[in-house]
Amino acid sequence: xxxxxxxxxxxxxxLVALLSLTVGASFLLTGAASIVVSLGIAFAKAALIxxxxxxxRGEHGLIRVFAxxxxxxxxxxxxLASIDYATR
Amino acid sequence: xxxxxxxxxxxxxxxxxxxxxxxxMYVFLGSEIMLFGxxxxxxxxxxxxxxxxxxxASKALHIWIGAINTxxxxxxxxxxxxxxxxxxxxxxxxxxxxxxxxxxxGVAFLAIKAFEYSREYADGVxxxxxxxxxxxxxxxxxxxxxxxxxxxxxxxxxxxxxxxLSGVATFVxxxxxxxxxxxxxxxxxxxxxxxxxxxxxxxxxxLYLAR
Lengths: 88, 211
Prior knowledge:
The complex is a heterodimer. Chain A is mainly α. Chain A is built from three helices and no strands. The longest helix of chain A is centred in the N-terminal third of the chain and has 26 residues, at about 5-30. Chain B has helices spanning about 15-50, 50-60, 65-90, 90-125, 140-175, 185-210. The longest helix of chain B has about 35 residues, at about 15-50. By secondary structure, chain B is mainly alpha-helical. Chains A and B meet through helix 1, helix 2 and helix 3 of A and helix 1, helix 3 and helix 6 of B.
C-alpha cells in the first residue's frame, strides 16, 4: 500500500474507534454531558471525513470556505431557534 | 503516455476548471446540509421541550443495528477515498473495483436499514405503517415521525449514491470516462458519498444515542 492509502486506512481506524467511543459513552453518560460528548465526537468524525476523505487538506482556501459555508448558515439557524425556545 | 490537459469553456487552465467543478459541488452539498439541518433543528426542539420522553423513545431504537450501519458507511467511504486517489493516478481498474465495493456496502446499508424498519414495524412503532400503532405516548410518536422522515430521506440519498457509484464505475470501466483527465467526475461523486456518510454520523447520535 502507498503512503496515501495507509493514511486513509488510519483515518478509517480513527473513525471506527470514535464510533466505539460514542456508543460506549451513551451507556455511561446522561443529560447535558451525553449531548456534549456525542455531538463532540460527531463533529470530530465529520472533521476527519471532510479533511482527509473529502481531501480538503489539499485544497485552497476558497474551496474550504465553500465546504464549511452551509455549516455557518446552520449555526445561525440553530442560534435563532435556540433563542426562541430558551426565552419562552 | 502523456495526458493532454482537458480545458473547456471559460477556464484559463485545468486547475481553475477543477476548482470551479469542486466549488459547484460544494454549493450543492451545502443545500443538502441545509435540507437535513431543518430536521436536526426539529430534533433539537423536541429534545428541549420533552427531554425525558425523547430519551425513552431513543432507548427503544436498535442501537447496535445503527452502530453496524455506521461502520458499513464509514468503510464504504474509505473505499471511495482510496478510489479518488487512484483516479488521479489514472488507475482505471482500481477505481472500478473500489466504487463497486462501496456500492455493495451502500446496498448492505439499505438492507440492514430495511431489516431495522421491519423490526420497528413488528414492534408497532413505525409511524404510518404499524397498525395498530403501540406508541407509549404522543412524544414517542413525534420522535418516531422524525426518525422515519430523517432516516428515509437519508436512505433515499444512499440509494442515489449507489446509483451514482455504479454509473460512474460503468463509465470508467468502459472507458467512456477517461482518467485521469476527467477524474473530477470521480472526485465529485466521492464528495457526494462522503457527505451522505457525514450526515449519518450526526443522525446516529442524535436519534439513537439520546440519553
